[in-house]
Write a structure and sequence with these properties.
This protein is α+β, with helices and mostly antiparallel strands. The chain is built from five helices and nine strands, in the order H-E-H-H-E-E-E-E-E-E-H-E-H-E. It has one domain: NADH Oxidase, CATH 3.40.109. The longest helix is centred in the last third of the chain and has 21 residues. It starts with a helix and ends in an 8-residue tail after the last strand. The chain binds flavin mononucleotide. The site of flavin mononucleotide has 9 residues, from strand 8.
Length: 224
């Protein structure tokens, strides 16, 4: 009996410590983002583009950290504001990172990737063939609870308008960072949301907006 009480208490404490959906503790600590250097802005704009042919070379942790900071990092620590704007600064967006070794949630404050689970769901992040083999797929998720929607409330397209706009800014930051790094990427609306959302362990008020595939250029730098 005592043993059961002890075990239940331990499980409860573990649940409180763990992010919803996370099933183990394989988090990845990221190096500090560079926040300096890179290509001059006009040159990055000059080469920005979408590409769908990729090399399967992994990104370094530094590249991952810089990429995520560009997408949705904190650039003004004093008030926790971000590299991308959000409507009424509601910051309802989350960036999930689908890698070969699992699904992670970008924690900008902790500068880390929190593991959600250790399954490879890259193929499920898109309906095209290339996401399955790409080293990094970002999935932009809106948590509408942060916009004041209540549990059980039906989410309408109108509720999602700002989140789509927010995602556009984040994705463009990533495009420019990729251009600066000589890396390729493409933003994607072709996402099987009905299959992906349950695989990500999302709650009903968490909605996948877009996904973005990020990779190093194929050696021939082919864009199609
Ligand atoms: C909202 C949005 C959704 C998109 N969805 C996809 C997609 O699902 N798959 C894809 O390969 N490209 C997708 N793209 C990329 C566009 O096809 C691409 O931006 C367009 O062809 C122009 O090419 P550029 O980005 O090189 O200028 C999308 C772009 C936007 C803005």
């Amino acid at each position: 009996m005592k043993r059961t009480v002890w075990l239940t208490t331990a499980l409860l404490i573990m649940n409180l410590l763990i992010t919803p959906g996370m099933i183990n503790g394989q988090d990845i600590s990221l190096p500090s983002p560079s926040r300096k250097g890179g290509m001059p802005l006009m040159e990055a704009l000059n080469v920005r583009g979408s590409a769908r042919l990729f090399s399967d070379k992994e990104l370094s942790l530094q590249q991952l950290s810089d990429l995520l900071w560009a997408a949705w990092g904190i650039n003004r620590e004093a008030d926790g504001k971000r590299t991308a704007p959000s409507s009424r600064n509601m910051q309802e967006m989350d960036v999930y990172v689908s890698l070969k070794n699992g699904l992670y949630l970008y924690d900008a404050r902790g500068n880390m990737l929190k593991q959600i689970h250790d399954r490879d769901i890259r193929a499920l992040t898109g309906t095209q063939d290339f996401p399955a083999a790409a080293p990094v797929n970002l999935v932009y998720v809106a948590d509408l609870a942060r916009r004041g929607l209540k549990e059980g409330q039906q989410v309408t397209d109108t509720d999602l308008l700002s989140s789509w706009a927010n995602t556009g800014f984040m994705a463009q930051n990533v495009y420019l960072w990729c251009a600066s790094e000589g890396m390729s990427c493409v933003i994607r609306a072709l996402v099987p949301r009905d299959k992906l959302e349950p695989e990500m362990g999302l709650k009903p008020l968490q909605k996948v907006i877009l996904a973005q595939t990020n990779l190093k250029w194929a050696s021939n730098r082919s864009r199609r």
